[in-house]
Amino acid sequence: MKNGYALARCHHCGLIRTDLHQNYALFVDRYYREGYFTGDRTRIAYVDYEDDKPYIMANMRKFFSFILPYKKRGTLLDVGCALGFSTKLALQCGFDAYGIDPSDYAVARAMTLVGKSRVRKAKLSDMHNATKKYDVIAMFDVFEHLSDPRADLATVHSILKDDGIVILATGDTGSLLARVLGRRWTFINPPQHLYFYNRHNLTRLLGDCGFESVAWKRIGKWLSLRYVLHLARTGGESRVADYLYRLAVFFDIGKFPLFLPTFDNMVVIAKKQANA
Question: What DSSP character marks residue 136?
């Protein structure tokens, strides 16, 4: 149990699942509102997504450095585009980029950044009619939020061109930090994260859904000091972090940049299997 939600682990493959015990569509509509991006402590999410843009962009540029050796141009779908930072970066990299997100607040903000024609309120399941339309489908810190990953990967398979790629970035339960911290690993933060993967079970899932991986990376991330402390005091359940967070806010040092070489995040690039 964590945050009032039961977690179940598969003893065979190690996959961990959150028992959401509520309608997913209604949950998404209620949960991913403005407070998710602006520091509502009940959301165990961002302190100030917009104000932390420099750190978010540093991580996004790393993701795109992984994409460019495989695809340098084409149509890109940014799934869970949030406030549109990654969609904007994709455009700057030369892609014909579009974003989707289920949050009214996020989509409204993203539209001001990249234009109304490039962003829409939608989930992956709403995109099933766009057959073989995209060269790249990006899911940066999104895959763990999905309630039916198999169905969503089936949609990705149908809307990705035959020579296209999908890039997924998510937490790695097989990492040293995840194994040491256990339930206090800040990535374990139900109800927003619903599935928790390692390289073995994610490879198997991708294979079952018609994909083969072509590259794997483990990464560290740039974060603001206040975001690190906020995650530690919420998902990490640390009273010390809560005290330090208040000090950081009081002394106005919360935006101090930190690079965390924890390598508890994994990135996979995959393509369609030749016979899929």
Answer: E
